[in-house]
Structure prediction request, 245 residues.
Amino acid sequence: MAVLVGCATLAGQQSAAAPGLTANLFPIDTVAYLTGQFHPDTTTDFVRLPADISGERTMWLRKAANDSLMAMSAAARKDGLQITAVSATRSFRRQRLIWEGYFTGSRKMNGENLALKYTDPAERCRAILQYSAAPGLSRHHWGTDIDLNSVNRRYWDTAEGLRVLAWLNRHAAEFGYIQAYPEGRTEGYVFEPWHWSYRPLAKPLLTVYLSVIGESEIGAFAGREMVLQLPWRRSFVAGVNERLK
Ligand SMILES: [Zn+2]
Prediction:
């Protein structure tokens, strides 16, 4: 029920001040918010995840997304499963560190140095974009998206991983959570069993993003011009589960 109320509240406030978000809904600049150019501790709309879900690491989510995650985790626990967060809100700066790590080869992707494997930087950007968002393009900026349990693909093939995924597929939507990058899409990142979006906020935010964020709103990072030559909005922003559009 809380999910429906949250959705109606956001939709109502948003339509009153479309296409941006109102200051009282989000007390910072819309472009800064959607591209991750802010810190969550500057607004009461974000809260820190409880230690039992974050494993004592500092992680932030929009308050409604956090409340629903706590309820979902408690429900899973009753069914004998553990749901924890391995990544939540990521700033532009954090996403740039991850992206540029792959781009320069200092960070390995699936054990590989992509800077050595793909000497053509445009080809390298396309390779990174199979698995990782460029800064400014990530749903993790919004505080609505979360990576659960493990970003290691092998975990999701274990008996535990399969049970958790089956539980999420069956129950997550009851808590407003939708898998952002399921199998069967024709655009964007490969299948990510771990990545879930809090739909009541994420769906309207995607609409706003697509109406206000263009090339000039995306900050600087290595390979930026090559990423922006791709159909980045269609593939890497809108290339999500149809239920999130
Ligand atoms: Zn993710």
User: Anything to note?
Assistant: Residues 1-24 have pLDDT under 50 and may be disordered.
